[in-house]
Amino acid sequence: AARGHRGGDGHCPQGGEGLTGVSPPGVSPVSPIHVYTQREVYGTVGSRVTLSCSFWSSEWISEDISITWHFQAEGSRDSISIFHYAKGQPYIDDVGSFKERMEWVGNPRRKDGTIVIHSLEPTDNGTFTCDVKNPP
Q1: How many angstroms separate the Cα of 87 from the Cα of each of 18, 49, 99?
Q2: How far is CA 57 from CA 29, 36, 109, 111, in A?
Q3: Which are the contacts of 75, defined by CB distance < 8 A and separation ≥ 6?
Q4: Contact call for residues 113 and 36 (beta carbons, < 8 A)
Q5: Which of 14-23, 87-96, 107-116 bottoms out in mean pLDDT, i.e. has the lowest?
Q6: Domain spanning 45-133 has what CATH number?
Q7: Beta-carbon contacts of residue 3 (< 8 Å; ≥ 6 apart)
Q8: pLDDT per residue over 65-76, tens digit each?
Q9: Residue 26: phi, psi to the nearest 5?
Q10: Is 117 helix (H, G, I), strand (E, B) or coil?
Q11: Nearest to 81 by CA among 65, 66, 96
């Protein structure tokens, strides 16, 4: 069986709720985005798995909202970008083994950045991270 972990964002690799929004000195405060994912997701080789990512912000959802999914293989130090949503369009990154097996099912207007990975392989074990940015 393939297993996947997902973090809330780059600051929360263990999953659960992540928080972004840091203000350098002299800059107006940034409102955080709360990103929610499941801590662990299990799937069977050959089947599909839904990697859900929902988020909440007190600010309105900007036309420039972006959602990025990263994957860090089990035992690897490096993570790769596997999916990006920007300027109203989903983009499946043309690297790694996911490009032919990924489906975008999210809807940023509903604060949803969910993806589906089809035909799971044993090498899909690892950490999946959902990162959401809502400029400005």
Answers
A1: 23, 26, 20
A2: 14, 12, 12, 9
A3: none
A4: no
A5: 14-23
A6: 2.60.40.10
A7: 40, 41, 42, 43, 125
A8: 999 999 999 999
A9: 85, 0
A10: strand
A11: 96
Q: pTM for this structure?
A: 0.77
Report residue 17's pLDDT band, with 50, 70 and 90 as the boundaries.
very low
Q: Where are the domains of the chain?
A: 45-133
SS (H, E, C) 24-46: CCCCCCCCCEEEECCCEEEECCC
Fill in the DSSP letter of residue 107: B
Question: What 8-state DSSP symbol labels residue 62?
Answer: P
- Rounded distance between C-alpha atoms, residue 80 and residue 133, angstroms: 18
Left if phi > 0, otherwise alpha if psi is -120 to 50, otherwise beta: which for 119?
A: left
